[in-house]
What does this fold into?
Amino acid sequence: MRTLEDHRQIIKEVIEEVYIDGIDTVTEFSFDEEENKIVGEFKDQSKIYDFEIDLNDGTLTY
It folds into this structure.
């Protein structure tokens, strides 16, 4: 079972693959156990993006 810190690390690694310089802030996230996904939002400069990471295959959707 993954911990909260495990989820934070997954978010960091997956999002940094897309945003090489990283992002300003992940404002919130939660784990959808039924779908095996992490969902949340992150801020990049003045925009806020919703994101979803499928833990089955590591796909990031935002």
Q: What stands out?
A: The chain has a mean pLDDT of 83. The chain has one helix and four strands. Strands lie at 25-32, 37-44, 47-54, 59-61. The chain has one domain: 4-61.
